[in-house]
Design a protein that fits this description.
The protein is of the alpha+beta class. The chain has four domains: 12-154, PAS domain (Beta-Lactamase); 177-280, Beta-Lactamase (2-Layer Sandwich), CATH 3.30.450.20; 302-544, Beta-Lactamase; 551-699, 2-Layer Sandwich (Heat Shock Protein 90), CATH 3.30.565.10. It contains 21 helices and 22 strands. Strands 2-1-5-4-3 form a five-stranded antiparallel beta sheet, sandwiched between helices. Strands 7-6-10-9-8 form a five-stranded antiparallel beta sheet. A hairpin with a 2-residue loop joins strand 9 and strand 10. Helix 10 runs parallel beside helix 17. 25% of the residues are buried.
Length: 703
Amino acid sequence: MQRERNPAPTDGAGIAPVLAPGPTSGFLTPFVEPEVLAARERFATTCEQAPIGIAHQTLDGRWLWVNQRFCEVLGWPRGELLATTLERISHPDDLAANGEFAESVRAGSRAEYTIERRYVRKDSGVVWASRTVSLVRDGFGQPAYLVSFLHDVTDRKRVESDLRDSETRYRQLNQAALEGIFIHERGTIVDANPAFQRMLGYELEELRGKNVFSLLASAETRTLVERYVAEGRTDPYEVQVRRRDGETITAEITGRPTVCFGREMRVVVTRDITARKRAELQAVELARESEARAAAERAGRRAAFLAEASRLLGASFDYQTTLATLARLSVPEMADFCMVDVVEADDTVKRIGLAHVDPAGEEILRGLAAYAQVDRHLGPFHPVFEGEALFLADVRDELLTLGASDEEQLRLRRQLAPRSCISVPLTSSNRVLGVLTLVHSVSGRRYEQDDLDFAATIARRAALAIENARLFDAAQRATRARDEMLGIVAHDLRNPLGTIHLAAQFLEELVPADQSIARKQLATLRRASDRMKRLIDDLLDVKRVEAGTLTVTPRPEPVAGLVEDAVSMLDPLAAAAGLVTEWSVEPDLPPALVDPQRIQQTISNLVGNAIKFTPRGGTIALRARRASDGICFEVADSGPGIPPDELPHIFGRFWQGDRGDRRGIGLGLAIARAIVEAHKGRIWVESRVGEGSRFYFTTPAAR
């Protein structure tokens, strides 16, 4: 009889599972019972439709049969799968994973093995599968073939990977956290991070199994913790905790319920706030000192503000500009917005200063400025114009409606949203000259009584500034009247003085040379008339400057000639005063486009001024050089120099540093400036006390 062979299919799709022959079925029988055939059919159908992958392989790894689920898990059609091997579709990194197991099963030393590995699907996707391989023996006990059972474990592997990543992130976060974190189950510590271990000075193994309450420093703390846990509260609270070394620290803890390993537990975050509490205690202990220091700093800021305000108010007699600047100085140091109103000479009110921390708010203030006259007679500011201070710690809305002349004024007031207000009168000689108003709005600050006192101090100084400025204005008007009178007098005296001058010259020529006394008196008369003539000429020039009729007739003039003429004219005067003169002209200078007579007058005024103030033995230098805007002339002396506070006034009319000096009336430098400016030039001075002075002026160069 011939031994029965496993049936070989005609194509991969029709392979039936292999049935191992028993000891009595070594030869084919002419007849197979129907029951056996039915059982085989049921077995084949069961294997084919099984929910797990099943495959039969030869001992050398060739396929004998695979079911549909096996193909679905690996992602290959049955025909293509049977045409390849399992190693060819295995992931490259997993090829060596089951080599040893496979060889031991083939050799018969191992009955089965299970391995999880990755396979590459036909669509290039990767699938994780658990494969259990068993050895099937024939009726003689010899290895016959291999049967494999395949499960798709991709989802489980993904969950395991996510779980590992989550655990890694948790442990990294737990290890890196600065706060102490521990988990306890009904008070028994299960785990703790390194920060908690460091905080209390314990090792992890010492903390595990330890009761949380044993770490608390007092019974009161234990009662507090029990209450928070019982109420399920998750807000932070403070407890006293005892370290391993016995030191007590203050900790802020926050606990939340959680579930670990299927059991209800509690996660507690702990922050050591001992240093903070110590600092808070020190802050409480130093509260009075801090308040005193704050008051001193506030007083210092106010003193600095008052000093700056005083400097500002005394810096100029233009009180309108000064008070406008004061309003800006007050914001935001003293107010969120500020207004300064002044009562003019005609008894009208003019708002000359306003400032707001917000540019948009400043536009609103400008809109309200038109109602300044209304505020004087109506509303909350009326008493201030009568001399009474207004102090409103809190501004109510009904106060905004008081005295509002129309809806627009009320709308603008509400847009400013005042919260606290101080308004004080600017009073001088029992007259209200104006009103200073300070308001807090957007900052939320509130005024106090000492703020009112400080505002009143500022108001007194502002009122004094207004009074001084108005007195100065009156003095200016008197000065202008004086100048007009001097101009008239100078004009009327010029002709009689010319007659006296000519008569003196004529008499000098008639008196014999041997009458020395008479000739000396006549010479004195002539010099006095010359000086009077120069003073009258200066007065007339000043009058021309004021009237805008000072004229120059420029023409090209050699610079060297101008300098030489000036030196030859002034050198005798310098020599008579015991001074040395020097002069220099830069080579190749272009001609100056000037009125020679007026420029000689300018140089004469500057040199004459230097001669007047330079002590004997000193030096006076006249130089000319090229400048970016033409020709620059310089008159330098070795005199005492000019104090810095006098420099801004040096070119003013009738101004003299020494009021007791009667060597002039203070017009020479003013006229020099007018002549230079008529030439479209510039004039300035540089001086240091003890180092002399240098006067410069420029003129155009001829093309």
